[in-house]
Every structure is written in structure tokens, then in C-alpha cells.
Amino acid sequence: EQQEEDTLRELRLFLRSVNDRLMQDRRFKAFTKPVDKEQVPDYHSVVKQPMDLSTALSKIDQQKYTTVREYLHDIDLIWKNALEYNPEDDPYDRQIRHRACALKDTVHAIIKYELEKDFERTCEQIKEAR
Ligand SMILES: O=C(C1CCC1)N1C[C@@H]2C[C@H]3C[C@@H](O)[C@@H](O)[C@]2(C1)O3
């Protein structure tokens, strides 16, 4: 009912504010767009669930997320995929992994400090009831 729609609208506003901060951060530029299949032909044989910050934003707008946990699962895919696909001990891979770790710590810190526990609990209850 209307209270649920109000809650889900507030969730989308919170998720857009988180996602925008991540997309504005220069360290995370490589995570903002899908890895190009043409440029990296073996990427999709290694990485089973590709994800990026633009795709997450369109999922927010398509109302694909009803909880913060679901959004966080997608952001966790981004940095985990980067660690998995860029394991080499060379300067490029090391820089990507450093940025992947920064993305992980940044998104978890924002959510820890800005998300109220009972707001997420309310979203989880809406999800269960659907
Ligand atoms: O993993 C990634 C992105 C970084 C986080 C997502 N890529 C896989 C390719 C390997 C490496 C060098 C380029 O071939 C470039 O295309 C990619 C992009 O970086």
C-alpha cells in the first residue's frame, strides 16, 4: 500500500545517493561501465555474473531492488569480479585490485554509517510479503 511505496521510494533515493558517490570517485572509473566483450573476449568465460555501477543505477531505476542487501550484493560482484579477473602480479592488475578493495570498503562504510537498521528491516519485511 502507500506506506510501502513511500519506503521503496526512499530506498531508491538512498541507493542513488550511494551509487552516485561511487560513480563520481575517480578511483572507481573502471567499474562504471560493463567490461566490453569485444575488447576482452574471454571475460565472460571467467566472470559468470558481470556487474558495473551503470547497470546497478539502471536496476535502481527499474525498481529491481527492494532492499539494500540486494544492491550491496551487486556492488560486491563488481569488486569480487575485478579481484578474480585481475590476479596477476603486474602493476595494472595490482592497481585494479587496490581499487576493488577501496570500492568494497567504501560501499560498506557508507551503508554502515548512513543506513538506519530499522529502515532496512522494513524493506526486508516488504520483500518477504511479496
Ligand atoms: O576487469 C576489468 C575491469 C577493471 C575492473 C573491471 N577488465 C578486464 C580487462 C583486463 C584489464 C586490461 C584491459 O583489457 C581492460 O579491458 C580490462 C577491463 O582490465
What's a concise summary of this model?
By secondary structure, this protein is mainly alpha-helical. It has helices spanning 2-24, 43-46, 53-61, 68-85, 91-114, 117-129. The mean pLDDT is 98.
Key phrases:
mainly alpha, binds ligand RHJ
What does this protein structure show overall?
By secondary structure, the chain is mostly helical. Helices cover 70% and strands 0% of the residues. The protein has helices at residues 2-24, 43-46, 53-61, 68-85, 91-114, 117-129. α1 packs antiparallel against α3 and α1 crosses α6. The longest helix is centred in the C-terminal third of the chain and has 24 residues, at 91-114. The protein binds ligand RHJ. Residues 30-31, 35, 39-40, 43, 82, 85-86, 96 line the site of the ligand O=C(C1CCC1)N1C[C@@H]2C[C@H]3C[C@@H](O)[C@@H](O)[C@]2(C1)O3.
Largest sheet: none
Please give the radius of gyration in angstroms: 16 Å
Overall average residue pLDDT: 98
Q: What are the bound molecules?
A: ligand RHJ
Order of helices and strands: HHHHHH
**Helical coverage, percent range:** over 70%
Uncertain segments are none
| Helical run tally | 6
Tell me the overall shape.
Answer: elongated
Through-space gap between termini: 12 Å
Derived from helix and strand composition plus strand pairing, the structural class reads mainly alpha
- How large is the share of residues in beta strands? under 5%
Number of strands: 0
